[in-house]
Amino acid sequence: MSFMSGAMRNLRRLKLRFNTHIGEKYDNMLAGVEHLINLQDVAGQIGAATESGWRASESAFKEAISKHPRCPNFSVKWVDPLEEEYRHSEKQHQRQERGLLGEIHGVLEKAEDTNKYDDDWLSQNPDLPSSVASCHPKSEKTAEASKHHVLESMLCDESAEPKALDLSLLEDITNNFSDDQEIGRSEFGVLYKGNLQNGSTVVVKKLAIATDDKLFLDGVHGLTSVKHSNIVRFLGYCANTHGNVTKERGKSISVMVQERFMCFEYLCNGNLQMYLTDESCGFDWHTRYRIIKEICQGLHYLHDKRIARLDLTPGNILFDEKMVPKIVDFGYSKFWGEDISRTGLRSLAYMATPEYLDGGAITYKSDIYSLGVVIMQIVTGRNKKDCSNTAGVLENWRNRLKLDMSPGHRSLETCYQQVKVCVEIGMSCMDHNPGNRSTTQHIIHMFDKTEVTEQSIRSDVGSSYLQQMIARSKEIFRLVVAE
């Protein structure tokens, strides 16, 4: 695509989207872009099937923009290839005839004071694709509604796959990542509340550590298949790379800035830390037992997917509107390779594990240790890791359970056995030797075994009661006959 002298003088923002093709040359990309004298921002979306195609076109894109005297801001994003409108042979002819790069699908956004020169230039170039030639955008409201619909429809469809999201959408729903929308921070990034037009809410995380596109997209790909009722739902992502131009010794220097964003469902009922209380009050045992089981099921799912959590704490377990616990902030190790423990993150839960303190390797068993700490915190309501007085914990729960034995509750002995199993699991997970810690598979098996035992007890009690009733009926019948 080329621009002539005097073309579109008031154009300030230029958006382009195009496909790359094997063997294609990009030497003349955006030739004459320096003629767009008021250009301030350039955004490109490159549909590339291969990394080499992406790299070649990205390099040419940046080189072309660097020739502009005003050094406009620019961003380049790797997206899925656009659906082709012509057969390959036809498109090849179109490219040769028109001299256009790829099948450029662009939107040229004009300033409010766009004048007749822009329309004159368009009228002189009738062969431009219709998406480029049509420079009069929809109304702002319609455009916003269309953008928001991407996330709104995903929230209504549990089976929808995570999508690549436009930065403009994330900026819009977070009010340009304003402080007012910030809802939390962690070692991994800043959390923003995203408000959609239909009243729904999502969470946008701006990652704290930049990674190259390939590593980020590989990491995202590993998370797209994560779907579990006890794992926060991943909705989409955005990889934005743009240039910031600074002056140094009279020369303009372009610095590449990488921004990485992820979007998740919003969990409205706070985190587990908010609900931790001792045995005498707070959640009853039935609720605590359910939460412990569901957290274990969520972590087992992640480990089964070969995803290490690394920072499992009550603050990273959130509740939805039905008080279902969900693990958040998972899988970030994929974005920084295997050696995340050496990236400078200094407050992760695994750093409290004996093996880390002893200089040993960080493995999935580090997650297990953190899980044990969380289980004991739920059982005792205390944040301390000192669980030496397990006998006292069990006695406290026996006393609480006696008070809670109202109609509809399970038997005292059944609940007490569940407490004992949870304490046993928690202590096993916190073993100093990682090799002695339980696996998530074994933990799930222990819960299943407890459920089977409980059903067996119920069955035995019911059978015994039935036998007693039958024997009593026979005795009454015998006495009646004797009379």
TrEMBL record:
PROSITE patterns: PROTEIN_KINASE_DOM. GO terms for molecular function: ATP binding; protein kinase activity. It comes from the Eukaryota. InterPro entries: Kinase-like_dom_sf, Prot_kinase_dom. Pfam families: Pkinase. Residues 177-448 form the Protein kinase domain. PANTHER family: C2 CALCIUM/LIPID-BINDING PLANT PHOSPHORIBOSYLTRANSFERASE FAMILY PROTEIN (PTHR45707), PROTEIN KINASE DOMAIN-CONTAINING PROTEIN (PTHR45707:SF75). This is Protein kinase domain-containing protein.
